[in-house]
Amino acid sequence: MEPYRKFSSRMIPLPQENVDTDQIIPARFLKTTEKTGLGKVLFCDWRFDESGNPKPDFALNRPEMAGASILLAGHNFGCGSSREHAPWALTDFGFRALISTTFADIFRNNSLKNGLLPIVVEKAVHAKLFQMVKEDPGVEVTVDLESQALLLPGGESVPFPIDPYSKKCLLQGLDDLGYLLSFSAKIAEHEKNAL
Amino acid sequence: MKPKTLFEKVWESHVVVSEPDSPVVLYIDLHLIHEVTSPQAFQGLRNRRLGVHAPHRVVATMDHIVPTGNQSGPPTDPLAARLVKELEKNCAEYGISLYGIGHSNNGIVHIIGPELGLTQPGKTIVCGDSHTSTHGAFGALAFGIGTSEVEQVLATQCLLQRRPGTFRVHVDGRLAAGVEAKDIILSLLARIGADGGTGSVFEYTGGGITSLNMDERMTVCNMSIEAGARAGMIAPDSVTFEYLAGRPFAPKGAEWDKAVSQWSQLRTDDGASYDREITIDAAKLEPMITYGTSPGMGLPISGSIPDPDREPDSSKKQALSKALSYMDLRPGQPILGQKIDVVFIGSCTNGRMSDLRAAARVLKGRKVNPNVRALVVPGSRAIKNAAQVEGLDRIFIEAGAEWREPGCSMCIAMNGDELTPGQYCVSTSNRNFEGRQGKGGRTFLAGAMTAAASAIEGAVADVRKLL
Predict the structure, then answer these.
(1) Is A30 in a helix, a strand, or coil?
(2) Rounded to the nearest 10 degrees, how much is the dihedral formed by the CA atoms of A189, A195, B5, B8?
(3) CA–CA separation, B133 vs B143, rounded Å?
(4) Which residues, in sequence order, are bridge partners of residue A72?
(5) In chain B, what residues touch A33 (CB-CB under 8 Å)?
(6) Selected residue of B27, B125, B147 to mutate for chain A interface (largest A Cβ count, 10 A)
(7) Would you call A23 an interface residue with chain B, using a CB distance cutoff of 8 Å?
(8) How far is B389 from chain A (nearest CA, A)?
(9) CA distance linking residue A102 with residue A121, whole number of Å
(10) Scanning every residue of chain B, which has its alpha carbon at the shortest distance from the alpha carbon of A75?
């Protein structure tokens, strides 16, 4: 995985709460053996009409949002199915960070394993960010994982939590499997004693 | 010694490594896999030239993309056939037991695990499927994982986990006639919402739970994930042991006696505390049904569609308006009498023998409304056979319902069984998300008896009038 670097981006607003992974990527697109190329069906049924044309009022389709890599999402984003195709589709589309008040557990885990940073902010900050985008869709924020802060225009710095292990993995581009494999002796010992 | 909860006992006995500032390395006893969330994990192993650490702890089935019309050959959908081939190839290469389409052990992953006795108290169980919480009904710690984690468990039989909180759901009282286990969980979801359990493991306790059979307990644990909970657990008791005795993979002879004595320790100690608690009175429940696009949008069957204008929270108000617009329902409208097009009885939530028996009791000697297509889909090959021995198939067919082959069917629109845009369905499955049962389809989640009664009426119905 690429090490996670500081970046600035506009935010695509998607205020609905409880956006489930069936909306992020409908089940009919899970019939694949690949992890790649799923960005084109991200939010498929919200993004495209019956004939496959982009719906102009859906946030991801707005011209002023093109190229943005932060999704400003509603409460409890990513609930439902455990499909990792959801973060695969989001990263393939170009997202690198998600901001919400809470994320569903499995989705959050899956995102962290794919270089997609779920940023949890307080309700008041969340509302303020939506207001900022409403007033100026071109507004940019900076994601600084190293200092665990979201930097807003005007200099305000909003801290966000992340566990030290996930932070280290993202910053160094490490993945879990290498870490787990380093414990093979302990795993063998557990298998001998406990089983 | 500090009193411990059931969760803590199972968790602590599986911790392999616990280091500061890092998640715990947790040992996994049983890894269930299926065709949709595993191909990329096996590819990952190949890319790293890794093997499967403990193939005897991995069991594979096919369920999500399996057609439930004809199972005499591979799926005709080329994408589905590719997934079938891929799983066959991976299981053969790595020495994993596979119960493919047509195999006598085939069925929905969360149905065959318990049925075969693979699911046992005190085990840690994972699967690349969020409804793995089902297995918690046996006092196992069972949860859904992503495909990267499937790869990790294949390679090491371990997972990195952050310790979740504990949340006791205490259910007092007994269900009245016509009220089902599904109504307990739908009622919990209506109270705490789709994120009410995030970060927690539920433990269901109380007479309202211990009076349930194993099929019913599985229905409750199955939908723990719909509240965002990591898992749902029930302490094993004599009902659990009786269910498991004699199952193909359950311990036998002296091993059985030893296992039962160990399993009997798997209960929350007196004086142990939970991070959160909630109490439900089962005796006061009516049949429940959902009306919206989140499983937490549910109401008693005699209730009416809520009014977004009366919702004080702006985000919830917006969600409710959007849901009612998708569902094409009016605020204040009673849910009873809402016309429907399809009834689906099946899935890992309600596709077991108890569910089929309950539906058959309602349908016996009655007819499915001519405007309704009713699908009855057994959760496994074994359930299909057992139901036919009991003659349940005749009851369904004579009532005018379709008696289909086992699989996930209309719970997830990826195997050919799906709604067409605008159709309304009373479904015994677990998710009413937009498009979950087919693009544009509208889902009312309910128990098997409510579904059967609605099939007869051609509209959302109160089964208690038919008893």
Answers:
(1) helix
(2) 30
(3) 5
(4) A13, A99
(5) 39-40, 43, 82-83, 86
(6) B147
(7) yes
(8) 34
(9) 8
(10) B315
- Spell out the domains of chain A, with CATH numbers in brackets: 7-194 (3.20.19.10)
For B117-272, where are the E strands, in sequence order? 124-127, 141-144, 158-161, 165-172, 200-205, 231-233
A194 — pLDDT class (breaks 50, 70, 90): confident
Average pLDDT over chain A reads 97
Mean pLDDT over A147-151 rounds to 98
* Interchain CB contact of A16 with B (< 8 Å): yes
CB contact under 8 A, B148 and A32: no
Q: Which of B101, B343, B445, B44 is nearest to A180 (CA)?
A: B44
Task: Report which DSSP code applies to B137.
Answer: G
The residue-averaged pLDDT of B284-293 equals 98
Check B158 against A183: CB less than 8 A apart: yes
Q: Please spell the DSSP secondary structure of B39-67, one letter per residue.
A: HHHHHHHHHHT---S-GGGEEEE--TT--
β-pairing verdict for B97-99 and A149-151? unpaired
pLDDT at position A55 is 98
Contact B37 A27 (CB under 8 A): no
Copy the structure tokens of residue A94: 């170009």
User: What tokens appear for B340 in the block?
Assistant: 């429907």
User: Which DSSP helix (H) or strand (E) runs through A158?
Assistant: strand A157-159
| Positive or negative torsion for Cα B347, B153, B114, B60 | positive
Kindly determine whether residue A31 and residue B82, on different chains, have CB atoms separated by under 8 Å. yes
B156 vs A165: CB contact, 8 Å cut-off?
Answer: no
Q: Looking at beta carbons, which residues of chain A come within 8 Å of B48?
A: 177
Share of chain A above pLDDT 70, in %: 100
> Would strands B200-205 and B15-17 be described as parallel, antiparallel, or unpaired?
unpaired
Distance CA B189, CA B23 (A): 29
Q: Which residues of B410-426 are buried (b: 16+ CB within 10 A; e: fewer)?
A: bbbbbbbbbbeeebbbb
* Structure confidence by residue, pLDDT tens digits, A184-193: 999 999 999 9
Chain B interface includes A165 (CB < 8 A): yes
Pair B212, B79: CB distance under 8 Å: no
Query: What is the pTM (predicted TM-score) of this model?
Result: 0.98
Among B158, B348, B432, most A C-beta atoms within 10 A, so best to mutate, is: B158
* Residue whose tokens read 């057609």: B67
The minimum CA-CA distance between A69 and chain B, rounded to whole Å, is: 23
Return the amino acid letter for B188. L
Q: Tell me how far apart the alpha carbons of residues A55 and B6 are, in angstroms, rounded to a whole number.
A: 50
Residues 6+ apart with CB under 8 A from B182: B219, B288, B349, B350, B428, B445, B446, B447, B448
User: B434 and A22: CB-CB below 8 Å?
Assistant: yes
B165-172 sheet: strands from edge to edge? B231-233, B200-205, B165-172, B276-281
Q: What is the pLDDT of residues B74-122, one digit of tens each?
A: 999 999 999 999 999 999 999 999 999 999 999 999 999 999 999 999 9
Measured between beta carbons, which residues in chain B are less than 8 angstroms from residue A75?
195, 315
Residue in the structure block whose two tokens are 């046992």: B120
Nearest to B151 among A82, A110, A177 (CB): A177
Q: Do the interacting molecules here have an ipTM over 0.95?
A: yes
C-alpha span between B332 and B335 (Å, rounded): 9
What's at B95, amino acid-wise? G
Residue-wise pLDDT for B410-440, tens only, equals 999 999 999 999 999 999 999 999 999 999 9
